[in-house]
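Quarterly update, task 2.4: sulfopyruvate-bound model.
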Amino acid sequence: MTRNQKLLEFVEQMAAMCRPDRIYWCDGTEEEYQLMMRLMVQAGTAIWMDHSKRPNSIYVRSDPLDVARVEDRTFICSVRREDAGPTNNWADPMDMKRTLSSLFDGSMRGRTMFVIPYSMGPTGSHIAKIGVELTDSPYVVANMHIMTRVGNKVLEVLGEEGDFVRGLHSVGAPLEKSAPDAPWPCNAQHKYICHFPDTREIWSFGSGYGGNALLGKKCHALRIASVQARDEGWMAEHMLILKLTNPEGRVHYLTGAFPSACGKTNLAMLVPTIPGWKVETIGDDIAWMKFGTDGRLRAINPEAGFFGVAPGTSMKTNLNAILAASHSSIFTNCALTPEGDVWWEGMTEEEPPEVMDWLRRPWYPGCGRTAAHPNARFTTPAAQCPVIAPEWEDPDGVPVDAILFGGRRGQVIPLVTEAFDWQHGTFIGSITSSETTAAAAGKVGQLRRDPMAMLPFCGYHMGDYFSHWLKIGEMTDPSLLPRIYYVNWFRRDSQGHFLWPGYAENCRVLKWIFERVDGKAQAIDTPIGRLPTPESLDLSGLDISAAALQELLTVDAGEMRTEVPLIKEHYTTFGDRLPKEFNEQVKLLEERLAKAV
Ligand code: GTP
Ligand code: SPV
Ligand code: MN
């Protein structure tokens, strides 16, 4: 237990409102994790997977109305409306607290309130931050055990005086006496994912799924942390972190911001196809970056696990994720095989003859629907990843040499482009666009701007966020800043097939970036940035047609010109908070395009 008065008061006040039957303080032990598993199995939320196939793992199906982040129910409740900016839903904090208080009133009746003290970042690291999530969901407790550092060790660091991000979460389904519980209690009609950046609070109601409910992740480590980062001169970003080693043993660290379900987990643990090269994982979703005393940006992974997209994950595409999730993992909304193992689309070369789909219906090949939900996920401890870098928990972080931006773009955008400098790179990041995915509720495949892959995760005005990026670029010697790149693995041919093999073969692009950072690889200037010369991209052993390569590596000035009005339109969103440097960048782009043939 704790003698931290602020924490004791927080728990007491929230319990008085939510009125749980019991309060349980999480200690973070393995016994506690096992208890959560048993609770879920007893309640019908989970079933054990066959021990010989998938030891110490459970299989969970959510309510079909609770399967992804709900961006239209996500709110930034800053005191001043303009601080939330044009890309966030805003609500007045007092009004929202009133609305939510009536929803939370008695919302935990019949349930246990779990108190989860957690650390984002290695416990005790000067870059780490502490939060406390109160929740009535054992599923959330179990997932938080994997995704963050939980329990007594966190309370020790918090001490009697320490401050913390206050998180309150309820599935919003009080349990009446003698009434049976739902396998996946939630409140589909009343979902609210609310952030109070001024007071560093998160109140989440009605959903038990992923980023809606595991408050350490998007709510704390991105939306609240981005505000802290702005105030304190660092960066909280939706980025993977990887360590890349060349055959001579030289190391560079890269981070990459791609929108949800656009390839971060896959890139973070890829197995290079070029002999002698090695990728190791530091993080797969979130990076906190601060300047070290050496003037370089250093990144830590605030998380301790992966909440990874299951569909598309196979021995071929992401061997290390498959191995990591081979035991002691949680599988949500996958399909169940008759042998008691999981399956999902793309897992095996041959589809199984029959499985039970995520909606408990029989599924067989050709039946016309998917067996797993497209946003089905595995929750797996990062330490179980065979290529986790030894320094992944270094409290000082790793020095970042390159930052990648990217998204899903079927057309126009080439395989890789290098920014001319930090300002140009920030500009490129700010115009990131991508086809929407199943990671959020809503239509899939719609093209939208997703600046720095942070559109759903920035806790303040996006125009100010752009200025913060520019400011970061001025905080150190330009030669110490990471180089910035834009990548696109998702370009398609006229038949709709991907032009680039992707996955492991992305190491060819990583190699080019590595050698650019070292001043070795060649590049050609184009109006949108620097592209690899055909010789500088290592394609040895790769079966790709010359025509496909040509399409992947050329900039069509005509096509790019059609993007300019769209960029301008995108920028009107931010009004007078758009940094003037970006207008200058648009002008420079237009000038370069005008000169191009
Ligand atoms: P979040 O966890 O939602 O933030 O997603 P993420 O960015 O980590 O995406 P992830 O690596 O899980 O990939 C999402 C989907 O894209 C999966 O179905 C992958 O199989 C697929 N994918 C990943 N990398 C590539 C690639 O290089 N090419 C192609 N075609 N698909 C890819
Ligand atoms: C994302 O959507 O970017 C995720 C999954 O990483 S969630 O935790 O649900 O946000
Ligand atoms: Mn993500």
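Highlight for this quarter: The chain has three domains: 5-47+72-233, 305-384, 401-595.
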